[in-house]
Amino acid sequence: MKHLLVDVGRVLILPVPGRKVTTRQKKILKLITEYRDALETGKINYENALKLINEYQTEIVLPFKKIYPSEYYNTLNKHSMYNIELVDYIKTVDAKNHVATNSFEYFINRLVEEYKLNEWTDKILVSDAFKAKKPDIIYFQKAMKTINAKPADCFLIDDKKENVESFMKLGGNGIIYENNEKTFEVIEGWIKWNLILVK
């Protein structure tokens, strides 16, 4: 059985052409990401992080000691669109489909609900659950274990070169996402002949 692993940002969810993100929105996205990373690595404690981001009107879920910002999701969603052409194609491919993302678990749960991702995916592979992020090889190792597959039987669609290269070092296949047409062509070659024309 073959498996397709699809990234979220700039692959499954694309920027809306012509829409500009305000300076405040950019600051929110940057700070939230930095503070979550700092919490995970122990560089700052939860109380300090809470003080730092309080002015940005985020939503805090205390039991998990993680930052779940509703404004983060709303800002991204406002300036993004669902890549329905890619999804419709993936549904026709003879493979199990999975989402492979470094996004917040909160954000992904919202996407699952809004875009009904569970209707065409088998697993949602979130970095929060693995305690590791792409391109860390540990992320991909845990992903393979979760979907019970070998890297050679998997194909990663990701917009970041370092993520695709890391997965290939593990023995997987992949493409750096640029557009749907090129992606479809390479996946067709992989599915039919196990051939990777473009890396």
Fold and architecture overview:
The protein is α/β, with parallel strands linked by helices and 199 residues long. It has two domains: 3-15 and 81-193, Rossmann fold; 23-78, no CATH class. It has helices at residues 23-41, 46-53, 70-78, 84-90, 105-115, 127-130, 137-147, 161-169, 180-193, and strands at residues 3-6, 13-15, 60-61, 66-67, 80-82, 96-101, 123-126, 154-158, 173-176. A five-stranded parallel sheet has the order 7-6-1-8-9, with helices on both faces. A two-stranded antiparallel ribbon has the order 2-5. A two-stranded antiparallel sheet has the order 3-4. The two termini are 22 Å apart.
- The SSE string, one letter per element, is EEHHEEHEHEHEHHEHEH
CATH superfamily of the largest domain: HAD superfamily/HAD-like
Q: Mean pLDDT, as a whole number?
A: 80
Please give the radius of gyration in angstroms: 17 Å
Counting copies of identical and different chains, the oligomeric state is single chain
- Class per helix and strand makeup: alpha/beta
Number of domains: 2
Helical amount: 40-55%
Give the termini separation. Answer: 22 Å
Going across the major beta sheet, what is the strand order?
Answer: 7-6-1-8-9
The CATH topology of the largest domain corresponds to Rossmann fold
Number of helix segments? 9
Report the biggest beta sheet as strand number plus sense, adding barrel if it closes: 5 strands, parallel
Strand content: 15-25%
